[in-house]
Amino acid sequence: MTNRPVVVSTEPIDVERARAETPGCAEVAHFNNAGASLMPRPVVDAVVGHLELESKVGGYEAAGLAADRIDRVYGAAADLLGCAPDEIAVVENATRAWDMAFYSLPFGPGDRILTARAEYASNVIAFLQLARRHGVSVEVVPDDETGQLSVAALRDLIDDRVKLIAVTHVPTNGGLVNPAAAIGAVAGEAGIPYLLDACQSVGQMPVDVAAIGCDMLSATGRKFLRGPRGTGLLYVRRTLAETLEPPFLDLDSARWIAADRYEIVPGAHRFETWEGNVAAKIGLGVAIDYALGWGLEAIRDRVVGLAESLRAGLAALPGVAVHDLGRERSAIVSFTVGRATPVEVRRQLATQAINVSVSSRSSTRFDMEARGLEAVVRASVHYYNDKAEIERMLAAVARLARARPAGCPPR
Ligand SMILES: *Cc1c(COP(=O)(O)O)cnc(C)c1O
């Protein structure tokens, strides 16, 4: 099982099969894939099956029996991201993955961190903490005229005090895809470490660390990868990992080799902790293999097509504004409906078995403030969504847009 060849499909998605293998498709039109996707049957079975096994033979004994399946998560993640298995750490979420890389990097007074306008709140909070502790300066690279990070502006900001380029590939709050590979080229040329938050891109499009040229990358299991909650991935290039001392260590990421000495283990394993949710970890490996089975190109083609048709349908509705930026677009569609608050829109759609989410200013403050947005409705598609669900969603939003807000007199 460990060295199973990867079957990379080049077929378009068989939507009927995808839906048949997704129990949730019978229950709800799920447009909250950027929050947490519906898990496919093989992932649910793997997680539940391992919990059953633990209940029968004991947790340590079950892990022993499932050693190949546990190991496969590293191979699967390596196949997915185009790296080696020992460059992958499996942790409990993308934030902790990102933190383990970020807080391992050495910073001193006067060092500069360059980031993008779409950066995620948790990452910026970490920047601000280091700014306060170590006198680091945090600078936001301006966007270009399409709303993606301006690579020319990034290049102009580079000097030898820049110690990190950390950007979000696909933001949490809209359809933008930042030019990750062009940023990688600038970082590589200047020899500056490059940390990519790929939480929203991994699983919905091909993401290859060599093609992008990033040194570190974080992702989560439950979003477009369709894995279980409480799982995250960190990639760190081997030669960089060997130079980094993680902010926390335990008896698995390091060895206590003499009364007064420890030694950090090789590779990305140093960013993990010993204890974890084994069933979820196995489920993540199965989810990655399931995605590889469909093929990331096929997944991207399908989600981009669905998202574009949703965007076009929403933009054509009177009173509805679509807010997505960028030259290249993802599976995430952001919009507002007249004077209805996004929370109210989410509530109304939920009563019709349509799941969307709300992205508020505090998740992506640099971007939302710059655009004067308080909150947006976020509808994120996956390849198992179908045309009928999109029509149902558009009809429901059209009814909301026509409805007068409570307390407003007729015009
Ligand atoms: C969701 C998200 C994260 C955090 O992922 P967790 O798994 O919840 O820690 C980080 N960055 C972006 C862009 C996200 O959308």
Automatic annotation (TrEMBL):
Q: Which UniProt keywords apply?
A: Aminotransferase, Pyridoxal phosphate, Transferase
An example Gene Ontology molecular-function term: transaminase activity
Taxonomy, superkingdom: Bacteria
Q: Can you tell me which residues the record assigns to a coiled coil?
A: none
Q: Where is the Aminotransferase class V domain?
A: 31-392
What cofactor does this one take? pyridoxal 5'-phosphate
| Pfam families documented for this protein | Aminotran_5
Q: Which family does it belong to?
A: Belongs to the class-V pyridoxal-phosphate-dependent aminotransferase family.
Protein name, per record: Probable class-V aminotransferase
